[in-house]
Amino acid sequence: MSFYYLSVGGLFPDTTWSTADIYFRNSSQGGGLFIVDSGPNSPLVLSSGPQLYSGSEADFDFVVGTHVLTEAMGPGSYTLTISAVPEPATYGMMLAGLGLVGVALRRRQS
């Protein structure tokens, strides 16, 4: 596997403890995801599709967009949407800018 997150909490059907291990596979492994029940280590989803990250396994970025994943253990497919989340500094700059606009409006009124 390329890289993984262990004991991810969520609503995973057929899990023992409502946690799963999520493995992100690289393109040489067929891309997509491999999701395993954290309890008995039984597979829940094995999907193939595009590689969902760029860069190396040690320094990666998720690929933003909508990805179609095909179930490899049986019939079915999944749609996974990955969206960008702004950095905290972006919010800080936005608040500072709004503060400066407020100061400018206040000066204009006096």
Describe the structure.
The protein has 110 residues and is α+β, with helices and mostly antiparallel strands. Helix content is 20%, strand content 39%. The chain has one helix and eight strands. The chain has a six-stranded antiparallel beta sheet, with no helix packed on it. Strands 5-6 form a two-stranded antiparallel sheet. The longest helix has 22 residues, at 88-109. It is elongated, with a radius of gyration of 21 Å. The chain starts with a strand and ends with a helix. The mean pLDDT is 86.
State the main characteristics.
single chain; 8 strands; 110 residues; elongated
Q: Would you summarize the structure shown here?
A:
This protein has 110 residues and is of the alpha+beta class. The chain has one helix spanning 88-109, and strands spanning 3-9, 19-24, 33-37, 43-48, 53-55, 60-62, 65-71, 77-82. The strands form 2 sheets. Strands 1-2-3-4-7-8 form a 6-stranded antiparallel β-sheet, with no helix packed on it. A two-stranded antiparallel ribbon has the order 5-6.
Outline the fold blueprint:
Elements: E1 3-9, E2 19-24, E3 33-37, E4 43-48, E5 53-55, E6 60-62, E7 65-71, E8 77-82, H1 88-109
Antiparallel strand pairs: 1-2, 2-3, 3-4, 4-7, 5-6, 7-8
Please identify the structural class as seen in this structure. Answer: alpha+beta
The largest pleated sheet is described as: 6 strands, antiparallel
Flag low-confidence runs.
none
Q: Write down the secondary-structure element order.
A: EEEEEEEEH
Tell me the β content.
35-45%
Average pLDDT: 86
Counting DSSP H or I runs of 4 or more residues, the number of helices is 1
**Strands in their spatial order, largest beta sheet:** 1-2-3-4-7-8
Strand count: 8
Helix content: 10-25%
Give the overall form: elongated
Rg from Cα: 21 Å
Instruction: Give the N-terminus to C-terminus distance in angstroms.
Output: 64 Å
